[in-house]
Structures are given as structure tokens and as C-alpha cells.
Amino acid sequence: MPACAFSMVEELTKSHVHMKDPEFVKKTIQQMTTDGHEKLQVVADFDRTLSKFTNKGKVCSTCHNVLEESKVMPDFYKEKAKVLRDTYYPIELNHDLTIQEKTPKMIEWWTNAHKLMKQCSMTQVDIKNMVAESNAELRDGCQWFIDHLHNLEIPLLIFSAGIGDIIEEVIKQQSYMYDNMKIVSNYMDFDNTGKMVGFKGEIIHIYNKNENAIHSSDYFERLNHRDNILLLGDSLGDLHMVEGAEVTNLLKIGFLNQKVKESLDLYKEKFDVVIVEDESLDVVNGITKAILNIPSQQ
User: Fold this and answer.
1) Rounded to whole angstroms, how far apart are CA atoms 180 and 287?
2) pTM for this one?
3) CATH top class, domain 3-54+137-292
4) What is 56-133's CATH number?
5) Which of 68, 92, 265, 266 has its CA 20 to 30 A from that of 18?
6) Does 47 participate in catalysis according to the annotation?
């Protein structure tokens, strides 16, 4: 691919960025640029998409890891949560299984994990403290991305199979929770003393993001004039997040954080842009700057 083909987005020429169809990516970005920010919305996963997979060689905490690694949580929780993760996470990563085969196992995992959390008597204050002490970290450049979407009132839907309370707290502690942002995730339910007593609504796991209430609500309907969508994810399940949305131009950007050799071809087939082992949002921000006509040095 000649570098000049992407003079508008220099980041797309980097060696860790892969595209099956560079011409499609170029045309989509050009069309989004022509249409302007009034037509744009962003739908993003959180764990290992907006947040880092590793930092300085150390694996960063996901929403669930924030609990598992905290001194606030009892030992029985950490032990049982690890057993659950060791049992089900390899199933999630197994590309030899279909989504239909994986889904019942994901439901089992999340159901058991939520029951386990309920036994721990954690409070809203505990959540704040656990996030503050964790090594969950937003990607480098995430602050720029969030700020510029807010400045232009571009909707940002964060769709996660993690824990909404923890996502909100990470964003509040490391960035800012603006009114153009909406989080759809598993939210804890607290009693009037602030003690966690369960979870609200139906379970959101990695493979049912297209079945959640957001798709039967008027969220996408209210944004049907914003039919250019940037989708950000790190899992094949994330590709379904925009089902139900009115789409004219869709650019699917995937972060491939691990098992690169085994997964790259599949990710290139499913995502338009694949970013390999990069803990920043530099590529996403480069694309965003092009769409919003922001000089690359800003």
C-alpha cells in the first residue's frame, strides 16, 4: 500500500496497522469527512478497547480484575473468581467454537460471577476505592478522544459486558464523564445504605450486545440522522454492537491485543482496521482528526 494513499491519516501507514481493503477504509473516511461531525456517532467497547491491555509490560485490570485484585474483596471471592475466569476465558478466546456454542458458557460465567459478587457486601465507596487503587488505565490519547467528541456533541455509546459502575468510576477518575456519553453495561444495584444487593436488568455478556435493551429502546432511533458510525472493539462479539442502528458509513476498528499470529487473519476479515499491540488511541485519533478536519498536530 503506497503511503500517499493515506496522507490524510498518517497513523494508518504504521507497521502495526493492518487492513484487508485499504481503499474501502480511505473512501469511508473521505465520505465521513465530507458529511461532517453532525452525521457521526461512536460506539465503543470499554475493557481493552478504551482501556489498556498492558502498561509498561504489566497486564492492566479489566472491570472484573479491579475486584479480583483489590484488598477490599474477601479471599473466597478472589479464589472463586479465578476459577471462573480460568474455566470460561479460554472458551471466549477459542476461535474454533461458534458464537452459538460460546453463548451458553458466557451466560454461565456472568451469572455465577454476579452471584459471587453479591456475597461480598461491597459498597459504593468500596467501588471508588478499588478503582483508585487498581491498575485499570485508559489508553494514551483517550482523554483527547473523549474531549473532542464532547466539544462537537458527538454521541459516544460505551457498550460493555463489564461492570458499569466500575467503568464510570475509571472514566471519572482518569478523564471526565460528559453528557454526550452513555454507558450500557451490567450495573450493580445498591440499597439505601449503599450496600450492593445484586445487579439491575438482564446480563450483558460479550456475545449478546446486539440483544440488549439499547437495541429495543429509541437510542439509535433518536440518532438516525447520525448514520456514520465509528465502531471500536477488541472482540468479534463487539461487531454486533450497532445492530439496529441506521448506518450509511460504518468503519469497524479492532484492537488485537494478544494471540496475534493466530487471530490476525480473522480480525482483518471482520474489522476494517486492525491495530496490533498498541496501548494508545493514536490510530483512532488520527482517523477522528481526519473526519473532523482537525490538524494532525493538535
Assistant:
1) 20
2) 0.92
3) alpha beta
4) 1.10.150.340
5) 92
6) yes
